[in-house]
Amino acid sequence: MNCILSARSAPFDVFETAAIEAPPTLLLGMPHLSLKGLSETWLLKECGHRHWLMIAAAAGRALPDFRDADGEPVYAAFCAATIRNAKFGVMGENDELAFSSDLARISGAQFVSLHRLSCDGRVVGEVELVSVFVKRREQGKNRSIARVSLEGLPPIKKSEGFDRAAGVAAMIRSDRWSAHFGFEKAKGRCEAQLRVRPCPSQDFNGAGFLYFAAFQSFVDRAEWELLEDVSAVHYMTIDRDIIYHGNIEPGERIVLRLLSQRKEDHVLAHWFEIARESDGARLADVFTRRGPHD
Predict the structure, then answer these.
(1) Which residue has the higher pLDDT, 1 or 150?
(2) How far is Cα 162 from Cα 166, in angstroms, rounded to an integer?
(3) Rounded to the nearest 5 degrees, what angle is found at the Cα of 36, between the Cα atoms of 50 and 30?
(4) Domains of the chain (ranges plus CATH)?
(5) Dist CA 261 CA 258 (whole Å)
(6) CA dist 43 to 1, 63, 92, Å?
């Protein structure tokens, strides 16, 4: 089975240097798969890596090594990640997966990448990532991260199709929303919760931050623990929106709160809040629709 991640057919004002011209083909094996198909965690990591490389290419750099005027490292921190119309269950061992992606700069420090997955000629999912440039104001402290501006970046272009996730993230991060994924904000109540202490060797990245791809894995663990009657072993993600608000230091605990859920026609939908246990600061809102893998 040939699975190809290809760019959208609609016209976009994207950076020519940002496109991956010859998508590498990956032979799927155990590192890329979960129990019932393509691993969502692996896919987010892979798309995040491509996003970072594409920003470097758009800036005319061979490597994604960005620094501010003082020589301090600058990172691309994700403020939103979305998955749409996923059918990850159709992929398995020894299938072939190839990638092609597009990138747009939509504000001073904000970039959006779009990635589309198809398999045997049919679309089986789309990933959209939104990032901003950040740096630590205090060395070694993740709570001190702040947005920064850099010189030498390509011009800002308002590109068709690249503003959906960024718009949703802006509304939710600023608390200017009333409903999303069919959940009303005013009706959100903690129905159950799970405390987790993220592991430095598994959940943090090489820059020392709690990795953006770990957030959805925490939600899956919470679903597995708190919603045992759902038979989650047979469920895979169909749609997911992750809106990021903050980060933690290694050693800190987080709390996952189930704020709302519903089940319709064998599809489970839920809204989780991830918060820092020590002060209650919100780290992410995660909206998910999951269903049978086949």
Answers:
(1) 150
(2) 8
(3) 55
(4) 1-162 (3.10.129.10), 178-294 (3.10.129.10)
(5) 8
(6) 18, 21, 14
Strand 110-119 with 122-136, pairing = antiparallel
Digit-coded pLDDT (tens) for 201-234: 999 999 999 999 999 999 999 999 998 766 557 7
In Å, how far are 119, 243, 248, 275 from 283, measured between CA atoms?
34, 9, 8, 5
- DSSP string across 263-294: EETTEEEEEEEEEETTT--EEEEEEEEEEE--
pLDDT at 26 > cutoff 80 = no
Angle between helix axes 212-226 and 40-58 (nearest 10 degrees) is 160
CA distances from 52 to 78, 87, 130, 183 (A): 10, 25, 11, 32
Handedness of CA 199, 248, 64, 172 (dihedral sign): positive
Contacts of 111 by beta carbon, 8 Å cutoff, 6+ apart: 51, 55, 58, 76, 103, 104, 105, 130, 131, 132
